[in-house]
């Protein structure tokens, strides 16, 4: 059965993507499988030499030395996966922690505001060498179970879990806040016929409203001088630029930092959508299109205070 | 908590030779049913679901967990059993292991190692290592 892309989806994104046909085409191809070496439990040299012995092919990733692509379907049945020496994770999902890699060296109190099932929490912990403190929060108790399982498996000790609706999180001050927001997840859909089933414009607007509340709260939890990453795995400007612009409207002390990732093709945020102009600074946000690097889709903003 | 903490540190040093200094920078948290968690020290005033990872259960004896031995096993120098490939596979699958002639190891909790990795915890008695791996973690390995 052919992969169906809703007409309205095509119409919307043809307006902002560089090569619409390539974009729609790659949405019909399967997403390469990738993993991250968990440096809490193992090392790149150790994992890769063992995978070589197994005959499991791996390809390195130009922008992240801990990340690898492998098409072997049995990667989940390796000793390294059992032991937590590797963590299966989509490549673009590894970006938010990387953007604060330097800041993490000095951070003592970090909030992963929407953390479950913990792909980014476990990566943050590895980048912090299992030291200092991460608070991993999520609204969904059932997803927290998966988070706990993943923290155990990867040997993360520096993390405490909370179960708040972020909008009611107690007023503390964090050095770094990661807001990996609930979203319509357009960018995770490739070759599984889901898009035509799940995609609706109404969904986008519902998410957008919640995201605006979440980003305001997350910013209030950031200490002056701190850094916050806002990310989604969706293309919709309503859930991305509009949300960051909302923060700019509300807070004069919100600033955006320019994002560059050596070896990864990125696109600047757009500065107007459906007749609304955004703050020119919004251009410093970043969208990752699937056809540029053969990944999922993603959006990132690095906010400072 | 201070006396339990001391007991736990003494236990890891006495049984496995894991130096107390490796626990520095972490806090010990006592939960219900004798469960003790090892986690970050400054956590702030919040309502927590859990802090850090479960490291031991204290009943009449101290029982170390798979979690803690997978992480700190590399600092141990005694009561370690090096598994063969077949034994490691069986252990990860959830089976008990028959061990012959391990002069350097005494009955009680042991660290099971294979190829540089601490796979976890077993209980040795009468030359049999009882599998302590939680069911959810058991797996049939294809590559080892
Ligand atoms: C994109 S997922 C997070 C993925 C996670 N960061 C990872 O890398 O594994 C978004 C999460 O936000 C949580 N969430 C939704 N609304 C929330 C709220 N109001 N407060 C806190 N968490 C919320 C959802 O339960 C979901 O787990």
Outline the structure in words.
The complex is a heterodimer of chains A (305) and B (144). Chain A has one domain: Rossmann fold (3-Layer(aba) Sandwich), CATH 3.40.50. Chain A has helices spanning 7-14, 20-26, 44-54, 79-83, 95-99, 101-106, 119-127, 141-154, 195-198, 201-220, 241-250, 290-293, and strands spanning 34-37, 59-61, 64-69, 86-88, 109-112, 133-137, 159-162, 174-180, 222-232, 255-256, 267-268, 272-273, 276-277, 286-288, 298-304. With 305 residues, chain A is α/β, with parallel strands linked by helices. The model of chain A has no long low-confidence stretch (mean pLDDT 95). The termini of chain A are far apart. With 144 residues, chain B is α+β, with helices and mostly antiparallel strands. Chain B is built from three helices and ten strands; from the N terminus they run H-E-E-E-E-E-H-E-H-E-E-E-E. In chain B, strand 9 (117-125) and strand 10 form a beta hairpin.
Write the layout of secondary structure elements.
The complex is a heterodimer of chains A (305) and B (144).
Chain A lengths: L6 H8 L5 H7 L7 E4 L6 H11 L4 E3 L2 E6 L9 H5 L2 E3 L6 H5 L1 H6 L2 E4 L6 H9 L5 E5 L3 H14 L4 E4 L11 E7 L14 H4 L2 H20 L1 E11 L8 H10 L4 E2 L10 E2 L3 E2 L2 E2 L8 E3 L1 H4 L4 E7 L1
Parallel strand pairs in A: 5-6, 5-8, 6-7, 8-9
Antiparallel strand pairs in A: 1-3, 1-4, 2-3, 9-15, 10-15, 11-14, 12-13, 14-15
Helix pairs in contact in A: 10-11
Chain B lengths: L1 H15 L9 E5 L4 E6 L7 E4 L1 E6 L3 E3 L1 H7 L7 E3 L2 H9 L3 E2 L9 E7 L2 E9 L2 E4 L13
Parallel strand pairs in B: 6-8
Antiparallel strand pairs in B: 1-2, 2-4, 4-5, 7-10, 8-9, 9-10
Bound molecules: S-adenosylmethionine (SAM).
